[in-house]
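Researcher: Following up on the earlier apo prediction. This time include the ligand. It's nicotinamide-adenine-dinucleotide, with the SMILES given after the sequence.
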Amino acid sequence: MHVNVVLNKTTSKDYSVIIDPLEKRVFDTKVMIVTNTTVAALHLSSLQTRIEAKELHTLILPDGEMYKNFESLNLILNACFEHRLDRKSILIAFGGGVIGDMTGFAASIYQRGIDFIQIPTTLLAQVDASVGGKTGINNDYGKNLIGSFWQPRAVYCDSAFLKTLPKREFAAGVAEIIKMAVTFDKAFFEWLESHDLFDEDNLKMAIHKSISIKADVVSQDETEQGIRAVLNYGHTFAHVIENQTHYTTYLHGEAVAIGIMMANALAQKLGLLSHEEMLRIQALLEHYALPTHYNIDDLETFYDAFFLDKKSANDTITFILAKGIGGHVMRNNIPKETVLEALKDLHA
Ligand SMILES: NC(=O)c1ccc[n+]([C@@H]2O[C@H](COP(=O)([O-])OP(=O)(O)OC[C@H]3O[C@@H](n4cnc5c(N)ncnc54)[C@H](O)[C@@H]3O)[C@@H](O)[C@H]2O)c1
Ligand SMILES: O=C(O)C(=O)C[C@@H](O)[C@H](O)[C@H](O)COP(=O)(O)O
Ligand SMILES: [Zn+2]
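Model: Understood. Below is the ligand-bound prediction.
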């Protein structure tokens, strides 16, 4: 099965997302696999037997969102220099979204840009992070605030890797699937309500559907000038939660689940989403044991942090909201009081 990402730009080439068992790949260039300790222990040897290259190198980084930073980026770049990778060399991001985002970013700046391939091993990375070329790292100010748009040459999604994924990580991926269904596809949302993703065939269907939605959005708007921002539904809130809790309490997908609830509270206040629709979305999130509540310490501080969001410009914040189930709207003129009241309502 293939899904194509078609880009109307001279700087980015089209590529395919291959959703099938990974076959042997042969490269006539130097290749460096970038992975982390967890993925290496579980799957590295099986990947290495399927990659043939002029020279094959491997870099194993520490595991965790808290390592998605300059230090790790520097480790990747230094390894590129140590192995004398050249402009024809290829990096392979082998892991979840953290490895994918950092490796993609390193590829985009090493010698002004080299190719990279995504081999995502988490559900979240298969359905979302590996597709679309958003790369980057976090810093003290917030999440993904430093990065680039740099598309992979190809994405290989092999569901066999998901067999070792812990339940919590699986659910985090489901949160991004639900995000796409709520904002883009009512029929898909209804299908999710009646099909359990713990079933292997259902999961394969949902992976294919989510990648198709994402590829379609990215094909229309590679660098988030418009519709791509809808993929950020829930994220304005989620990124603040992740940063405030130092990337140790919630997985990205879990924070997105809470962020979806916050965005929905706002959408309900604005008459865009009914109470019944809000409850249906909550029920689907809770079916996968995703968190739907976060105790905001200080509403003012929480609100102020929205201004670091990349969707904020000229002192206004753009909120991505569901318009019914299967629809979306972008709003940048919502009074602060309305936002704060919606967040208070959710707590009540
Ligand atoms: N670029 C994008 O478009 C985009 C989209 C969504 C999320 N993201 C980013 O992706 C990151 C979240 O990605 P994630 O949820 O994959 O987190 P992650 O990369 O931290 O992986 C989650 C955990 O699962 C482990 N793991 C990976 N594969 C495994 C496997 N097959 N079996 C067992 N364990 C495995 C990892 O070692 C890690 O501990 C965040 O940094 C987020 O900002 C980026
Ligand atoms: O691909 C996109 O576009 C997304 O927004 C996907 C999100 O799931 C992802 O978490 C993204 O990294 C968040 O956007 P960011 O621009 O704030 O990093
Ligand atoms: Zn996300």
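Model: The chain has two domains: 2-164, 167-347.
Researcher: Noted. I'll compare it with the apo version next.
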